[in-house]
Amino acid sequence: MQRKYPRLRKSLLANISCILLFILLNIPAHAQNYQPFLTVQAGNAFVEGKALYVLSGGTVGGTIAEQAFMIDLSVPWNTSSPAYKRIPLGPLANWFPSAMSADGQKLFALARGEAFVFDIPSSNWSQIFSYPAADEIAGCAATDPGTGKIFIPFAYKLPSGTSRAMMIVDLKTNSYTSDNSTFPVPNQSIYAATWNAQLRSLLYSSYGAMYTYNPSDRWKSFNPPPGLRASHSYCMVSSSSGSIVVLFGGFSTDLNASVGDIFILDARTLVWKKGASTQSGDVRRSPACAVSNGYFIAWGGDQGNTRSIVPSDHLIVVYNLKTDKWTSGYMETNPTDSETPSNADSKEASGASGSIGLILGVVGGAIVIGLILGGIIENRVRKSRSKSSSSPVPTNVAYVDAKPNNDKDPEEGIEATNKGKRTVQEGAFGSESESQNPHSCTIGSESATQYSHSLQSQSMPRHPHKLFVSGQDK
């Protein structure tokens, strides 16, 4: 008589369910549709080929955003569904300098007179020093990859109280010094800056003027892009090799509006060229920017003095530096070039279908694997049963007429062997490793507001946002 093993099958189904649950929990973050909300003047820095980090910033309503996330630059994605991932909250402010360490393992931020470092491998924030006078400026920080030092124009306040100097931060000692050499321009709180490896200098720009700086040669004049319309609030970033510098967006005081111009500098020939202008929905000032794998990426920002909202389907824009065209995809095989707002619906649908397709593909694959394993186990059970039933019955045994023992279930042995094996181990989800390119820029708007800030401790707790209180406009 054929025996059935319902308990064995139940155990197999339970194990398959656990496998499916583990796989679904490990689907990439961007497939889970995390969507950050729009901010302007956010702290930002990037590691080429790894991630663009975006910290806090101001909301359209004028409040401080409790938000921190990264955009994954190691994988392809479409502008309708970028590869977003949350990170722990850090300093809550807008319009503040931030930069990557030379090794790409730490994110530095100077906000409201306090300096903080986010350790990427451990995913922890810590405070490294206080400098209240730095709360009076807002601009960019840039890292020299050769020395690892971070340079912040106008951040250091001289004893006179009226003039300011270059602050130089050393993350090896968590300390700062200053270069008190005279700036070529008056004190500015609205500027863009990036370190360029080819020029071996910090490249500084504000209100149409441009200069280079390094500790040896100090300040030197540099030719700005011809036809630059933006007065301020543009972003400026360099590639890790230093071969190019990209300047994008900003606000034009002549036009009283944000612009979408993009300029690319060939740092070897020192020649600027103007790229294709953006569509009207993509113009912006004070975005978070990066250069990675032959693409320029800009996230967030606003479109004017009234903080006009950037359309939700244009929250992030991508420029292909090889084809000199705006495109809908970062590292995608067949992106849509020169995209217009009319494509928005089809983009959203393709992004959603891509996420659903990924989930269904993973689940389907897991089911196939489970069925194969089930077939193998079932086959082994049948072979074992066949060997047992084909054993010869002894002919010299005297049988005793007795009642059968119904106390034991023939499947009890199978149940016993499966006990203790039906546990689910929860996977530990570690942080992503990052690497090299410490070039960053954060720029502010002309009408920045100042905020009060109080810090309760010198070390960051598990929920650092409790240390940072959104201030009120003066």
Give me the number of helical elements. 3
Inertia-based shape? globular
Tell me the major beta sheet. 4 strands, antiparallel
Beta strands, count: 28
**Terminal residue distance:** 88 Å
Overall pLDDT metric: 74
Helix content: 10-25%
- Report the radius of gyration as a whole number of Å: 30 Å
- In the predicted model, the low-confidence regions spanning at least 5 consecutive residues are 339-358, 390-437, 442-474
Beta-sheet strand percentage?
25-35%
Query: What is the structural class?
Result: alpha+beta
Q: Taking strands numbered 1, 2, ... along the chain, how are they ordered across the largest sheet?
A: 1-2-3-5
Topology overview:
Layout: H1 6-25, E1 43-47, E2 51-55, E3 68-72, E4 77-78, E5 84-86, E6 98-100, E7 106-111, E8 114-119, E9 124-130, E10 142-143, E11 150-157, E12 164-170, E13 175-179, E14 192-196, E15 201-206, E16 209-214, E17 218-221, E18 235-238, E19 244-248, E20 251-252, E21 257-258, E22 262-266, E23 271-274, E24 288-292, E25 295-299, E26 316-320, E27 325-327, E28 329-330, H2 344-389, H3 412-418
Antiparallel strand pairs: 1-2, 2-3, 3-5, 4-28, 6-7, 7-8, 8-9, 10-11, 11-12, 12-13, 14-15, 15-16, 16-17, 18-19, 19-22, 20-21, 22-23, 24-25, 25-26, 26-27
Helix pairs in contact: 1-2
